[in-house]
Amino acid sequence: MKDNLFGKTLQELEEVVTGEDMPSFVAKQLTDWLYKKHIQQIDDMRNLSKKNISLLKKKYQVGLIKHTSVQVSVDGTKKYLFPTANEKFIESAFIPDKNRATLCVSSQIGCKMGCLFCMTGKQGFQGHLSAGEIINQIHSLPEFDELTSVVYMGMGEPFDNLENVLKSVEILTADWGYAWSPKRITVSTIGIVPAMMRFIEVSKAHLAISLHSPFEEDRKKIMPVENVYPIPKLLDSIKSFDWNSQRRISFEYIMFKDFNDTQKHINELARILNGIKCRINLLRFHPIPDSPLASPDEKEIVEFRDRLNAKGIVTTIRTSRGEDIFAACGLLSTKKLLKELDSEKDF
Q1: 115 catalytic, yes or no?
Q2: CATH 3.20.20.70 domain locations along the chain
Q3: Which of 85, 169, 216, 331 has the highest CB neighbour count under 10 A?
């Protein structure tokens, strides 16, 4: 089976051309064709010699993958289904909004973290995405030229697939890659501390942390990661890093009725986040099967936001998008889709 060129870093492509006894400058030519010129096959690389093209084609292919289906929400959100190398599927969500357009990308097929509120976790873990498969969701997006930002908030826990996530961010931000500003990228995590700290040190992209409760015992009930990396360790690690004004850290906080929506939660959030320059993004909970959780009403969410802002914590309510096509936060999963596909085979 041929190896993919797409998704390789400049260093990895240098190793490819060296292994084929090609001039070293060919590696930079490859990055231009792969990440700047949207070619589909090696034969399209017009400034490579016929000999070099022939050598590459023996062992390599470009490796781009088109989406197999798209669902469109009433609010304009689009959910794309992409196949993966191991014959599984992932979803990514394109979210247009006035002068902005965001793509929510996946980093794994399913997830092993087991958060109580997430459909992806109910799908189970089926594999890591390669850097190429992560970037492919962006590169192969029909609306690629409209994108203003990318968030790693789709299927999977990015820091459980750290190496491939870091490679994908490098490709997006490097001069030889897409040359994006790291300000256009946000990576979300439930708080895998060692991987998170490495990301903070080697990347300049923004960081978002799924918190959902300021109390350790309550967080354990909905997020098993709390048993391994408890809130104090998570926040101490963040405070140990010297954040600059150009880099944003935010805390994602899904609102659950009668669980994390009281004044005591506001007071505790203000206490534990004291000294961290950050913002809180409040999210509505979208019900999933077999979950005991529910969302507060709109008035309660607004009051919660206002009280946090009064405490001096910049707090916003994230608009829910694509709920009717299960593209909203926590709803990305191919489990139901694959069952439907299997049932269709019976006819």
Answers
A1: no
A2: 82-342
A3: 169
Ranges in the chain annotated CATH 1.10.150.530: 3-61
Indicate which residue of 12, 14, 91, 118 is catalytic: 91
Catalytic residue, from 104, 115, 118, 329: name it. Answer: 329
pTM of the entire structure? 0.94
Q: Is the dihedral of CA 340, 343, 345, 347 positive or negative?
A: negative
* CATH H-level superfamily of 82-342: Aldolase class I (3.20.20.70)
For 27, 39, 78, 181, 321, the CA distances from 45, given in Å and listed in that order, are 12, 7, 32, 26, 39
Give 104's strand partners.
Answer: 93, 151
Contact 270, 308 (CB under 8 A): yes
The answer to whether domain 3-61 has CATH 2.40.160.20 is no
329 classed as catalytic: yes
Q: How many residues does the chain have?
A: 347
Which own/partner contact pairs does 343-346 have at CB distance under 8 Å and 24+ positions apart?
Answer: none
